[in-house]
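Why does this matter for the project? Reviewers at the last site visit asked to see concrete outputs rather than summary tables. In response, this paragraph embeds two records directly. Each consists of the residue sequence and, immediately after it, the corresponding structure tokens. Nothing has been edited or filtered.
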Amino acid sequence: MDIVIRRVEREEYAALGEITARAYLDDGLLDFGESDAYLAELRDVAKRAGAAEVLVAVEGGRLLGGVTFVPGPGPMADLAVPGEAEIRMLAVDRAARGRGAGEALVRACVERARAVEGCVGVILSTQRSMRSAHRIYERLGFVRTPERDWNPVPEWDDITLLTYQLTL
């Protein structure tokens, strides 16, 4: 069966929210575990879908994962400046990993960015430990932009997100 990338449907919000939350929790990506404030953001697909484009990877009717495509600066952008799109909250269900869903989701975001008038690049943030994701980004032509690395929780010195950028 082929993996299909499409917009999330309203009845899939809860399932995608849980896939995203579990991916971050189970991979140890939330510094405060179940009490991490970011967990609520990961689960809130309705909020993301209201401010950006949420895409899902589906195979044979089964939801494999999702990503948020932000077409430019706005409420869902962390770093995008005019002329940039942003990729956020890429997550694939643990049982579905290694089958190309993550790469298909990133490719879909790049395609969408190319269709945005005036968009010349795509930016994303990632954690140091997300090595599988880094390999996807690098394979697709993204390069590290250490000058844009940032800390989403400034009061904690040891939380730094790495950035990657693709020039279109």
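We now turn to the second protein, recorded in exactly the same manner.
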Amino acid sequence: MCLAVPGRVLDIGEKDGTRMATVDFGGVQKEVCLEYLPDLQVGEYAIVHVGFALQRLDEESARQTLALFEELGMLQEEFGDPWEQAAAQAGADSPWPFADGPYAGEATAPQEAQEGRQ
């Protein structure tokens, strides 16, 4: 699911000629494009969707929405680690292959698989 999430602008800069900001979404910080809200300032809140600030929002509304999203687990769904989410849905303990097995900690495929490719 893709949400439009309220966030607070922490800093503003320019990247490759585009006005950008670091935005805090209840503890998660992401880089956001401000081209649709060119007058948005540090400390203000905006609704952000797919990396673009779309609409200014008052602080109270932003805090209430973030609290509700957090309560419903929607912030984790939106900003959490996709590998962990997939593993949780599959019922696995770890999202990483070989995390608990005989190949734990190996960065490459098992030797048998590598020999089969030669």
